């Protein structure tokens, strides 16, 4: 009993070896020929990306194919330009980035140039994907994280206002800049945040956690609270 109380006091601990396990040859659903063709096209165009970054393969196999309704992909780069192919209905993909130069990498079915925290063009979304959008290092300081936990609270609160009940929130906390020693500490800190943050506890189900090479992935569902 005392051991359990001590563990609860320490908070969640990330153990070594809890990595994503994926087979790059896996196709999410072989019963839909059109989807298989699109998925193969994505892998052909992004083979090096998914081979080198297991998080991208995780999104391709486990997240986008299972998303329902309109999906908002926040923050885009060149490798996001074909993400819409991974949805069951590609026309449901929307994207958003504050940088106007990223338009060419956005969804062909709708891209917005805006700050996520002020964006409210749509609601009742099926999923909000904030992958690599939190956890960045502060370029002005090697000691302080760029994003504090309060700012992360604001982000997940705003996501809650956009999601429908049961909708997915996908967070890919970026930790690739950390040393191995600091990474473990930061992983614990972010997991502890996910368990203790008021918006996370109030608006979402308990996070499903995955540990990748570059990101700590948290997936949770929007509860019906307003």
Task: Describe the protein.
The structure is a single chain. The chain has 226 residues and is of the alpha/beta class. The protein has a single domain (20-221), classed as 3-Layer(aba) Sandwich (Rossmann fold), CATH 3.40.50.150. It is 33% helix and 19% strand. The protein is built from seven helices and seven strands; from the N terminus they run H-H-H-H-E-E-E-E-H-E-H-H-E-E. The protein has helices at 2-10, 33-45, 47-52, 54-63, 149-162, 180-196, 198-203, and strands spanning 71-74, 93-97, 111-113, 125-131, 163-174, 208-211, 215-221. It has a seven-stranded mixed beta sheet. A hairpin with a 3-residue loop joins strand 6 and strand 7 (215-221). The chain is globular. The termini are far apart.
Strand content: 15-25%
| Number of H/I helices | 7
Structural class: alpha/beta
**H-E order:** HHHHEEEEHEHHEE
Give the domain tally: 1
Shape: globular
CATH superfamily name?
Vaccinia Virus protein VP39
Q: Could you tell me the number of beta strands?
A: 7
CATH architecture: 3-Layer(aba) Sandwich
Strand line-up of the largest beta sheet: 3-2-1-4-5-7-6
The CATH class: Alpha Beta
Mean pLDDT: 83
User: Spans with pLDDT under 50 lasting ≥5 residues?
Assistant: 1-18
Helix content: 25-40%
CATH topology: Rossmann fold
Q: What Rg is obtained from the alpha carbons, in whole angstroms? A: 18 Å
Query: N- to C-terminal separation?
Result: 37 Å
Largest pleated sheet: 7 strands, mixed
């Amino acid at each position: 009993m005392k051991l359990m109380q001590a563990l609860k006091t320490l908070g969640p601990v990330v153990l070594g070896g809890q990595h994503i396990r994926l087979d790059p040859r896996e196709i999410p659903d072989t019963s839909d020929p059109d989807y298989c063709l699109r998925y193969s096209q994505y892998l052909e165009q992004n083979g090096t990306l998914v081979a080198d970054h297991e998080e991208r393969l995780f999104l391709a196999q486990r997240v986008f194919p299972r998303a329902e309704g309109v999906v908002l992909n926040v923050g885009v780069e060149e490798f996001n330009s074909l993400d819409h192919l991974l949805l069951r209905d590609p026309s449901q993909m929307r994207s958003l980035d504050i940088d106007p130069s990223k338009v060419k990498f956005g969804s062909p079915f709708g891209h917005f140039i805006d700050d996520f925290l002020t964006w409210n063009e749509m609601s009742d979304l099926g999923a909000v994907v904030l992958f690599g959008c939190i956890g960045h290092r502060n370029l002005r300081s090697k000691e302080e994280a760029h994003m504090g936990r309060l700012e992360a609270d604001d982000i997940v609160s705003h996501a809650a206002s956009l999601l429908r009940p049961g909708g997915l929130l996908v967070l890919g906390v970026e930790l690739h800049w950390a040393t191995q020693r600091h990474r473990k500490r930061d992983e614990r800190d972010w997991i502890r945040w996910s368990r203790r943050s008021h918006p996370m506890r109030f608006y979402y189900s308990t996070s499903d956690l995955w540990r990748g090479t570059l990101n700590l992935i948290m997936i949770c569902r929007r509860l019906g609270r307003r």
